[in-house]
């Protein structure tokens, strides 16, 4: 059953607050994210569970309703709604409210494609986030705001999607960018680490000499699933004496418990994907 989003939006505005929740059992595959707890005042107001998803009631959401209808799938989710501010009004950089709006926009710009690349995988597609320059910029800004004063000299980006988010962050915080690539892509001498994935195994490599012992690194990727990729990246950097200050991803798949695999290495994410079933 498809919810009446127009009326939710109306009630929402009338209440002038975000403290409204609707039990809705149908959710579009495109809106299956929730805002992570440290960043969301909304999350603080609601008992956020794994089966909670946020959507943004915006004109872009409304216009994607027909697509929403075609991609709808049965899922036992509770749907919480965050209001969007008017264009231009949400630049309260650094304020909690401004941050929440940015996170909500980022979350709703990520598309979820079921059964890609294999049956049973809910693929978190960040290419739609890149189509929204505001959401893309907000993504980079949130990372830059967090890391600009942490004396990071290396941003290590993981192939392929870490190459999209890593370089603008590196430039903004005055750090070098080091690509961590799939096997046989780097032309120089490399060191490598193997890892297992949600769907297979792989290896990452880094150029010898790209980093110096004692440097402080931030590792960037689009997503953490099992955490195997990030663990391999951490091992690779630590082998050559680099301190990994933190790992950062746009999306976390919490049910795969990759965060646990990282042990005490800090992980910062912007949105958590709803359950992968
Ligand atoms: O936490 P994990 O279970 O290790 O999985 C996360 C990794 O999986 C995806 O990349 P993928 O291996 O699909 O490679 P690609 O970006 O080159 O397509 C994603 O971009 C991460 O790098
Ligand atoms: N569900 C998923 N979506 C996108 N990238 C992934 N990498 C591993 N699992 C993924």
UniProtKB/TrEMBL annotation:
Pathway: Purine metabolism; AMP biosynthesis via salvage pathway; AMP from adenine: step 1/1
GO MF entries: adenine phosphoribosyltransferase activity
Residue intervals of the Phosphoribosyltransferase domain: 132-268
Listed Gene3D superfamilies: 3.40.50.2020
UniProt key word Cytoplasm: yes
Protein family according to the UniProt entry: Belongs to the purine/pyrimidine phosphoribosyltransferase family.
Record-linked PANTHER family: ADENINE PHOSPHORIBOSYLTRANSFERASE, ADENINE PHOSPHORIBOSYLTRANSFERASE 1, CHLOROPLASTIC
Protein known as: adenine phosphoribosyltransferase
Organism from which the protein derives: Aquilegia coerulea
């Amino acid at each position: 059953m498809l919810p009446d989003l127009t009326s939710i939006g109306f009630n929402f505005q009338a209440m002038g607050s975000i403290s409204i929740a609707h039990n809705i059992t149908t959710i579009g595959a495109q809106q299956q994210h929730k805002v992570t707890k440290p960043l969301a005042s909304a999350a603080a107001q609601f008992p956020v569970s794994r089966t909670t998803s946020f959507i943004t009631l915006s004109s872009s959401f409304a216009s994607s309703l027909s697509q929403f209808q075609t991609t709808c799938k049965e899922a036992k989710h509770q749907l919480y709604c965050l209001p969007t501010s008017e264009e231009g009004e949400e630049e309260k950089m650094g304020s909690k409210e401004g941050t929440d709006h940015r996170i909500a926009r980022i979350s709703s710009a990520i598309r979820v494609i079921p059964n890609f690349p294999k049956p049973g995988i809910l693929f978190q597609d960040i290419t739609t986030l890149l189509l929204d320059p505001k959401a893309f910029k907000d993504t980079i800004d949130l990372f830059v705001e967090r890391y600009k004063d942490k004396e990071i000299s290396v941003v290590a980006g993981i192939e392929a999607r870490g190459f999209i988010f890593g370089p603008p962050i590196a430039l903004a915080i005055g750090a070098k960018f080091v690509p961590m690539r799939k096997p046989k892509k780097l032309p120089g001498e490399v060191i490598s680490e193997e890892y297992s994935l949600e769907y297979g195994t792989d290896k990452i490599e880094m150029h010898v000499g790209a980093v110096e012992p004692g440097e402080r690194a931030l590792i960037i990727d689009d997503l953490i699933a099992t955490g195997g990729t990030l663990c391999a990246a951490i091992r690779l950097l630590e082998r050559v004496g680099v301190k990994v200050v933190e790992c950062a991803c746009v999306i976390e798949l919490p049910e795969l418990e990759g965060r646990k695999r990282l042990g005490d290495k800090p992980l910062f994410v912007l949105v958590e994907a709803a359950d992968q079933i």
